[in-house]
């Protein structure tokens, strides 16, 4: 088993490397950092631009494979290169990475746990009021893309705060730098509320649908009937036997859902003015900042494959049939 | 006769009935609506900038005096077309890749699935966003191709695993023992028997593509001016959403209704096509 | 006093489908009641209703009293005290009946703890005891295993252990051995009887297999279309049936001790519960039907001591002493011309010479690596002469399906030779191979899966014709449909509009489309109900004689084989154990495995079942990836067990090959100590003749 997981991990590392390399080359060929220097007033000499771009490893006159080589060598030694205007990508990333991870981690866990729980309730109470309520809300939420949800939440909070006359819920930024100590901690929590809701609501709806369907599939199976034939109550049979078995497919979806979660984070960060990795991606694409884009891509690839690996672990922990092989 | 049964079951489903009626109304609005409105989507009313909805401009006007009713419906047309095209291409691609990988097995399977795994490493939003600077000034059809090219992978995996079990079905074996070529078996016996899955998937892909388009356009990575789509309109409207809500509410509301109605139909189709499952 | 009294039980499913329409029975302490019926007769639904385990939406009426307490309409608090405590149930498919994520021991311990106040450790210990009781080796270790790590037979034993955990008064067994091989079935039935002795429980045994019930049941209830049609002591039902359906059912079963010749089919198929005919539901299929039968459904009325019959002509049957063979027309099958030529002078249509098929045993999900070899088929030889049926029999995992696939693929085998109609499969080019496919066709087991559900029947039958470029497809389709006893109009319908037997006929029509010379039959009747089986078997026999076909008939049911085959090859773990003419192998089996196999088959004959001695095999089939050295059967061989140490050496060291037995022309066995033993005596009527 351990060997299997190790091999799985090795494959994931290869996949990260290939995906990040392809993404770098894609970014290096589609974006032109040169544009930021051309057409300036006063105009900058061609040779000066070339020299600057060369220094940052951004010159489109250098063959892309050569630029890739320089970049890859840097990445291997832990140096992600320079931004379009010469800043350190490493420093920028250091500032942003935990901002994003905090958001993603809380959103993922909340989405999975609450979603699975709601799905289970929904399945046990099939066709009852609570099932219908959960069903209708998840349908509506799944029709609401993150950017709409976040914008609507921001608008609603703005009006609420306006009406109250003071800021009950923060709707912009990550924290208030003026506060310190415990106040700052509370302030950070307050700032987390809206982004977390808008990020996790979608996956709550997603997992609740999946878990409900999986459980209903399992409900008709013989082993639930066996459990009841033993003398277990319907509810016990459902939670102990059906829910436990139906968790397995939900756990496999975990791998796929993380990519969506990251995409969602791009919007929440932008809309609530958090300076995370997602917001950085949008800004650096607009700024033709190849190395920053490559860094975000690498970060995403690692996160996605780590989630896939976690999902493998989770499935192995839940399913003895996988474990033994 | 099977399709009749499915349709009857679909119409018996309350959710699906709501979905279908809503979708029909929305499509009518998108394609017939513009003929009823007083303005063309290219018209600009220089006497009314950012004016609130009224009897003249039903859904108000924008920053340069566009009639929001005409513009929004024009955007909705584009969103619907993009959704349909993307879903068609993506589902077709998924069906072909998945069934070939599953039926042929061996190195064909390995190569195709490695490709799928690789494409799944990065969220499609990210890749399309990176490519998008190239699309500036290009036709929106390129955007369709791009969206489709990055939204078939998960389905193809499902198709593959279903093909693996279909491959062992006796009628597929029978065809092989008759001497029918393999590609013909795939198109005659495998893909038709996956049609329930493919129909459901194509339906849900329409709504995913519409959302995907809007999401990319929200940051300017999608449909480029002068073309408009629901995504570009929402992006513009959200900037002034608190002051001029009509710029935001109409495209956003239509987007949600469109996606909701398609999802309801998709869910109803699942029940109708696959009566065994409870999904 | 009865443990369970069921009166006028009816079950209606949503949509007004009456699955059970008035069932009454009693079960006494220590008694076995057999409930027999074909699929859809309502036999399983009846017992689920008693357990209160029907899906919500099913409406149950009538009464079911356990020790005088009404079970129907009990609330859940009461129900859970009865279920698993006073009444336990054993289900058909033991794989899906266990929760895949908990260990077997935990699931049994759970059953114990539900009803007995007991600590976790004590319950776990009790689970191990129970596993030991049902004959699971190393029970303390196996208790920690998960359901998927158990073999089918082991799982069913564990299921029995769970069912008797709380000393129930009543055990309901729903087709407990249907999914198992015959030798495993014999083991499990033995365990079940042990369990009954231990607990003294009454048993309700639900099955479609009249053989299984004959040896076990004290009384039998025969169900048809949701109602009991005959009920009584087991001997009365088997020897003196008084309802034409029971008579037909008994006459239609192929018997391992029976004679060759056509079986007696019951025409038509059981009515759908949604569209019952007026009057007696069996009337449309009954050869004794009179006009009165359509007037009203005959009630189940008392008929002599302890029996009930639902037929208006039952007294007439009694007076005239009619049997199934008298009532149901016995079809006449024209004899074959080819068989008149001696076998040695006939052409050979298929020859397998030391054929080998091994699979790599792979491990790992991404980078697969080979960790061993599955010796699926490990050197088998046989040949089939023109106009002959060779049956390949064996239990699951013996390699018969692999053999069949290797033949059908027409690819070079890994070792040995496959020669079809004189052509070596290793030397075929592409066009020869395609040409040969027209001469070699297959009929599959599952009539549901063998036909593409999205194609009309006409296209299905025409597919091979079109693939081989025949122009007159539609005329030929009509001809073929008539040949297999269907109407040409059926060409426009879809497979799901046909019954199982009809679908199998469509499969046969497709196989015959290209006028093959050799037909491979892969368990062609094992998925069909008994009353329908007979018709398909007769059709196959008739087609063979009329068209001069040869059959390779792969089956696990030795009784069917006896009726259809001329020669039989018994396989065990990828090798042939015994081969020869049906008479030789069945009447004088020489290999201990064949003997055990034949003795494990239950006979639909209560008296002989009760007195018969079974040769029970130990344990499960070894893994084909790791077969025992020397003789592969030695680990389970009853003969090996009684050999001297010196004699055993030979079994361990030397792999026996098929050797011709002295003084017989066509009979060989792969056993160092082959010895003919008679395990089934000829049936009574044969003796009389």
Task: Summarize the SSE layout with pairings.
The complex is a heterotrimer of chains A (325), B (279) and C (689).
Chain A: H1 2-30, H2 34-37, H3 46-55, H4 64-76, H5 89-124, H6 129-142, H7 146-164, H8 181-219, H9 222-230, H10 234-271, H11 277-286, H12 290-318, H13 320-324
Chain B: H1 2-12, H2 14-36, H3 68-104, H4 106-121, H5 124-135, H6 140-149, H7 153-167, H8 170-178, H9 182-190, H10 195-218, H11 230-239, H12 245-273
Helix pairs in contact in B: 1-12, 2-3, 2-12, 3-4, 3-6, 3-7, 3-9, 3-10, 3-11, 3-12, 4-7, 5-6, 8-9, 10-11, 10-12, 11-12
Chain C: E1 2-13, E2 17-28, E3 32-36, H1 43-51, E4 59-66, E5 69-70, H2 76-82, E6 87-90, H3 94-97, H4 104-115, H5 120-133, H6 139-142, H7 152-163, E7 170-174, H8 182-199, E8 202-207, H9 210-216, E9 219-224, E10 227-233, H10 234-239, H11 244-252, E11 301-302, E12 308-309, H12 314-320, H13 324-327, E13 348-363, E14 369-385, E15 389-393, H14 400-409, E16 415-420, E17 423-424, H15 430-437, E18 440-443, H16 457-467, H17 473-483, H18 500-512, E19 518-522, H19 530-547, E20 550-555, H20 558-564, E21 567-572, E22 575-581, H21 582-587, H22 592-600, H23 606-611, H24 638-642, H25 645-653, E23 659-660, E24 667-669, H26 684-688
Parallel strand pairs in C: 3-8, 3-9, 6-7, 7-8, 15-20, 15-21, 18-19, 19-20
Antiparallel strand pairs in C: 1-2, 1-4, 4-5, 9-10, 10-12, 11-12, 13-14, 13-16, 16-17, 21-22, 22-24, 23-24
Give a description of the structure:
The complex is a heterotrimer of chains A (325), B (279) and C (689). Chain A has 325 residues and is mainly alpha-helical. Chain A has one domain: MetI-like fold. Chain A is built from 13 helices and no strands. In chain A, helix 10 runs antiparallel to helix 12 (290-318). Chain A is globular. In chain A, 45% of the residues are buried. With 279 residues, chain B is mainly alpha-helical. Chain B has a single domain, classed as MetI-like (MetI-like fold, Orthogonal Bundle), CATH 1.10.3720.10. Chain B is 73% helix and 0% strand. Chain B has twelve helices and no strands. Chain B is elongated and about 75 Å long. An eight-stranded mixed beta sheet of chain C has the order 6-7-8-3-9-10-12-11, with helices on both faces. An eight-stranded mixed beta sheet of chain C has the order 18-19-20-15-21-22-24-23, with helices on both faces. The two termini of chain C are 45 Å apart. Chains in contact: A-B, A-C, B-C.
């Amino acid at each position: 088993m351990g060997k299997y997981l190790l091999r799985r991990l090795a494959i994931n590392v290869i996949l990260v490397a290939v995906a990040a390399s392809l993404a770098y080359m894609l970014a290096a060929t589609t974006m032109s950092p040169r544009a930021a220097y051309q057409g300036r007033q006063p105009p900058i000499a061609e040779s000066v631009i070339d020299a600057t771009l060369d220094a940052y490893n951004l010159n489109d006159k250098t063959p892309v494979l050569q630029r890739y080589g320089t970049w890859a060598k840097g990445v291997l030694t832990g140096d992600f290169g320079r931004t379009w205007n010469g800043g350190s990508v490493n420093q920028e990333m250091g500032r942003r990475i935990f901002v994003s991870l905090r958001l993603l981690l809380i959103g993922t866990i909340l989405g999975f746990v609450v979603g699975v729980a709601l799905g289970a309730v929904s399945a046990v109470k099939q066709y009852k009021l609570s099932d219908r309520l959960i069903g209708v809300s998840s349908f509506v939420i799944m029709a609401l893309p993150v950017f709409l949800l976040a914008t609507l939440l921001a608008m609603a909070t703005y009006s609420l705060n306006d009406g109250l006359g003071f800021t009950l819920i923060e709707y912009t930024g990550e924290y208030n730098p003026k506060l310190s100590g415990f106040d700052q901690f509370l302030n950070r929590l307050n700032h987390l509320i809206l982004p977390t809701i808008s990020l996790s609501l979608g996956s709550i709806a997603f997992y609740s649908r999946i878990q409900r369907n999986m459980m209903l599939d399992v409900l008709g199976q013989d082993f639930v009937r066996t459990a009841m034939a033993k003398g277990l109550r319907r509810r016990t049979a459902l939670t102990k036997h059906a829910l436990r078995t139906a968790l397995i497919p939900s756990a496999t979806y975990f791998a796929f859902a993380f990519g969506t979660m990251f995409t969602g984070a791009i919007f929440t960060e932008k809309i609530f003015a958090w300076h995370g990795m997602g917001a950085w991606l949008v800004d650096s694409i607009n700024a033709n900042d190849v190395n920053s884009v490559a860094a975000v891509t690498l970060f995403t690839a690692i996160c996605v494959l780590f989630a896939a690996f976690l999902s493998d672990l989770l499935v192995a922990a839940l399913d003895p049939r996988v474990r033994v092989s | 006769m099977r399709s009749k049964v499915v349709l009857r079951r679909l119409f018996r489903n309350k959710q699906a009935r709501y979905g279908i009626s809503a979708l029909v109304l929305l499509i009518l609005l998108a394609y017939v609506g513009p003929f009823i409105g007083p303005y063309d989507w290219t018209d600009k009313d220089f006497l009314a900038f950012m004016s609130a909805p009224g009897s003249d401009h039903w859904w108000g006007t924008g920053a340069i005096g566009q009639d929001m009713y005409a513009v929004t419906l024009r955007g909705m047309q584009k969103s619907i077309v993009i959704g349909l095209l993307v879903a068609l291409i993506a589902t077709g691609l998924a069906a072909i890749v998945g069934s070939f990988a599953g039926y042929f097995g061996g190195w064909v399977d390995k190569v195709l699935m490695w490709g799928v795994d690789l494409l799944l490493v990065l969220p499609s939003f990210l890749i399309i966003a990176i490519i998008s600077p190239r699309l500036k000034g290009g036709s929106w059809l390129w955007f369709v191709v791009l969206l489709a090219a990055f939204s078939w992978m998960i389905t193809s995996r499902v198709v593959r695993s279903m093909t693996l079990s279909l491959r062992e079905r006796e009628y597929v074996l029978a065809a092989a023992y008759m001497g029918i070529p393999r590609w013909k078996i795939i198109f005659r016996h495998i893909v038709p028997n996956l049609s329930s899955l493919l129909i459901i998937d194509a339906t849900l892909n329409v709504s995913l593509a519409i959302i995907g388009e809007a999401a990319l356009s929200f940051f300017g990575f999608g449909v480029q001016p002068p073309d408009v789509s629901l995504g570009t309109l929402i992006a513009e409207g959200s900037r002034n959403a608190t002051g001029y809500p009509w710029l935001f509410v109409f495209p956003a509301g239509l987007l949600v209704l469109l996606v909701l109605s398609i999802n309801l139909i998709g869910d109803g189709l699942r029940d109708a096509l696959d009566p065994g499952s409870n999904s | 006093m009865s443990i369970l009294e069921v009166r006028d039980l009816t079950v209606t499913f949503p949509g007004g489908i009456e699955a059970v329409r008035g069932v009454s029975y009693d079960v006494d302490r220590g008694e076995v009641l057999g409930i027999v019926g074909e699929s859809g007769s309502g036999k399983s639904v009846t017992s689920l209703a008693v357990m209160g385990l029907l899906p919500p939406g099913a409406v149950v009426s009538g009464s079911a009293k356990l020790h005088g307490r009404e079970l129907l309409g009990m609330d859940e608090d009461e129900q859970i005290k009865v279920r698993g405590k006073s009444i336990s149930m054993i289900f058909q498919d033991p794989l899906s009946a266990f929760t895949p994520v908990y260990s077997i021991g935990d699931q049994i311990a759970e059953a114990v703890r539900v009803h007995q106040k007991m600590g976790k450790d004590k319950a776990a210990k009790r689970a191990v005891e129970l596993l030991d009781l049902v004959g699971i080796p190393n029970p303390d270790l196996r208790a920690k295993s998960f359901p998927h790590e158990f073999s089918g037979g082991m799982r069913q034993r564990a299921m029995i252990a769970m069912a008797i955990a709380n000393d129930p008064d009543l055990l309901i067994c729903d087709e407990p051995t249907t999914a198992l091989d015959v030798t495993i079935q014999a083991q499990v039935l033995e365990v079940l009887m042990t369990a009954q002795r231990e607990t003294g429980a009454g048993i309700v045994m639900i099955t479609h297999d009249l053989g299984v019930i004959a040896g076990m049941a004290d009384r039998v209830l025969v169900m048809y279309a949701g109602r009991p049609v005959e009920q009584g002591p087991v001997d009365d039902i088997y020897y003196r049936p008084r309802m034409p359906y029971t008579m037909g059912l008994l006459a239609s079963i192929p018997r391992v001790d029976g004679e060759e010749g056509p079986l007696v089919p019951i025409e038509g198929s059981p009515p759908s519960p949604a569209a019952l005919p007026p009057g007696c539901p069996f009337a449309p299929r009954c050869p004794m039907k009179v006009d009165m039968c359509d007037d009203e459904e005959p009630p189940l009325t008392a008929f002599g001591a302890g029996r009930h019959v639902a037929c208006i002509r039952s007294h007439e049957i009694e007076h005239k002493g009619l049997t199934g063979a008298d009532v149901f027309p016995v079809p006449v099958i024209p004899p074959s011309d080819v068989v008149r030529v001696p076998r040695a002078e006939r052409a050979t249509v298929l020859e397998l010479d030391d054929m080998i098929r091994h699979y790599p045993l792979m491990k790992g999900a991404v980078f697969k690596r080979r960790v061993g070899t599955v010796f699926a088929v490990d050197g088998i030889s046989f040949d089939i002469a023109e106009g002959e049926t060779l049956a390949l029999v064996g239990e699951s995992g013996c390699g018969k399906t692999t053999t069949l696939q290797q033949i059908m693929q027409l690819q070079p085998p890994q070792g040995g030779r496959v020669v079809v109609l004189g052509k070596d499969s290793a030397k075929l080019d592409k066009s020869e191979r395609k040409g040969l496919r027209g001469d070699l066709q297959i009929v599959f087991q599952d009539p549901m899966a063998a036909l593409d559900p999205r194609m009309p029947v006409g296209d299905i039958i025409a597919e091979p014709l079109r693939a081989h470029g025949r122009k007159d497809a539609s005329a030929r389709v009509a001809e073929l449909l008539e040949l297999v006893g269907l109407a040409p109009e059926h060409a426009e319908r879809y497979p799901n509009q046909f019954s199982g037997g009809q679908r199998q006929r469509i499969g046969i029509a497709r196989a015959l489309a290209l006028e093959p010379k050799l037909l491979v039959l892969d368990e062609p009747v094992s998925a069909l109900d008994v009353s329908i089986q007979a018709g398909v078997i007769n059709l196959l026999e008739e087609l063979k004689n009329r068209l001069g076909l040869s059959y390779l008939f792969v089956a696990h049911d030795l009784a069917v084989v006896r009726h259809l085959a001329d020669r039989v090859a018994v396989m065990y773990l990828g090798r042939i154990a015994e081969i020869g003419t049906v008479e030789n192998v069945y009447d004088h089996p020489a290999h201990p495995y064949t003997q055990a196999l034949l003795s494990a088959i239950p006979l639909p004959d209560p008296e002989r079942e009760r007195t018969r001695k079974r040769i029970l095999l130990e344990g499960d089939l070894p893994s084909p990836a790791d077969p025992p050295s020397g003789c592969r059967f030695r680990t389970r061989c009853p003969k090996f067990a009684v050999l001297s140490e010196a004699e055993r050496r030979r079994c361990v060291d030397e792999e026996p090959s098929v050797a011709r037995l002295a003084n017989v022309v066509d009979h060989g066995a792969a056993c160092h100590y082959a010895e003919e033993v008679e395990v089934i005596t000829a049936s009574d009527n044969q003796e009389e003749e």
